[in-house]
Amino acid sequence: MAVLLAGALPALAGVETEIEEGIGRWIAEAFIAQRGRLDQPPIADWVSEVGNDLLIHTPRDGLTYHFVVLDSPEAHGFALPGGWIFITAGLLETMDSEDELAAIMAHELAHMVDRDFQRMVKRTAMWLAVAQILREADRDDWVPLVQAAQLVNTLRHSRRQEAQADHVGARIAWDAGYHPLGIADFLGTEGSWSYLETVFATHPDRNRRAEWLVEHVSEFRSEDPEGALRLANSLLLRGRCAVAAEMMQEPLAPGYEQQREELLLRTEHCRVTAVRPKGMALPVESSASLRDGVEKLAQARAEADKPTESAWRMLRRIRDDKQLGQALTLAQVIDPQLTDVAYLALLAQTVDLLHRTLRGADLLSRSINMRSSTTGGLTVAAERAAVARAAEAEAATLEGLAEGLREVTLRLTTGMEGESEELARLAGGYHRAGRLVAPLLIELAEGGAGDGRRLTFSRFMILQGQVRMLAMRMDDLDESAEEIAAEQWGASVRLRRAQLDLIGIEAAPSAREALVPLVARRVRAEPSALIAAWSETGGLGEAALALLEEQLEPDDDPFGSRLRAKQIIMRLASIEAQEQVAWAKTEKQTAKGADRFALRGAI
Question: pTM, whole model, 2 decimals?
Fold first, then answer.
């Protein structure tokens, strides 16, 4: 089988779409088998809808496209041959707008348009032979692992191809009514360390990419005034009034000025629809209790700084470790002996352990960042709630919100220092595991090189025992890391619910006309259903979360897909609502320093 495939490889240079789709399906199944997918309907349906919007403007026909949310903590998107577009859960958890998602997906679709994957067929076909050998040896249980062990090498594009995909993807997003600068926004807020960013380190410099994208958008606006109007209108419909106004600031080509002025008037209408109501203030004792909770949270953060920095130091060691880097490089390029099933299985298991080490470290870094974002957001929300005023009918909602914020702050305060020490311990554990895995992988790679350094049977058995012991250690590390992550993701959901509740209390009735469809769209509910739930629960965030809960599939895992889907949706809903309300404030209010709705500085 391997010989026949190898002999046929030259004929595959002009691979047809059918072959490309078959290869893509094989690789995609391996990725999903190794990582799993975040298949909650509100997430999967939303990503597919954005993808289908983009497909209308994607030149390449003849492919069946698949949009998959991969259950991985790192923030990344990538494409596979044959129409497979993968978005990670970590990307959805960190982006600040739907335009970021669309721009990243458009970039990946551009690889399909340019047929970048057809150059990968030779290596992929060889690994199809590997999988076939395992099947013939009745080792089907190892097939997904062996596939996943070599997939990253298949996915690497050149810097030239990435730059071209930026250009083509920007045009796809523009035509579909999404802001192409979404990728630039994402690059500007991306975490400092990502496993997949390390693996796929072929993208051009992020600052240069941002400059290119700005140039592309300027060209599009000049050449396509209708597209600029379409994009501005799309931004307005999605509550992004400030970005729409910026898009319409400069004159358009003759013949389009009237439409530009009409859109500018609509953005100004957004600005004046929300006037903060005058009503009842939070009772003095509740306000004092909130501030007490904020002070205790600040004290806990200060006490946790030292062990938190220790955790970051250990995570940086993983990133900078030269032996781990060497092993990661080998994991992407090694060509094992295709006839030795036992050797191949052990090699694949070792590569998987290396990747688990890096992914576990990535989850820890995401947890630290999540805690920092949540505690900062809680501080701002509590300070806002302490001075908020509500209509008489919503006074009880304001008090309940204040008590809920105090409860979350105190819950995070308790044991924060101990949690930071645990994060440092886990980071050290992942580093030690990686330091043990790396030399095993290097030895296995050298032993399969076929140059006289093959492993003896006794050494092979020793390596097999070491790999099994490391796998058990990794299971313990992963379990502890996910416990901490579950607490941080849960706290983030509670914060986002409180932020929406507070926006609902502070917004005038006229502003709610804009907020209701915006939030309802994000939680995938009818505006009338959100209004009814809001009336029943008394809080906008509580109503949104209740409607979202109804759509989520059951999940008994504390850090399962249900919790992560809630965090993604509620986070984005609160960001969009705050962005809308921030723009809705009048200039007079801003001059008085009442800028408590501003999003970016508050989170």
Answer: 0.85
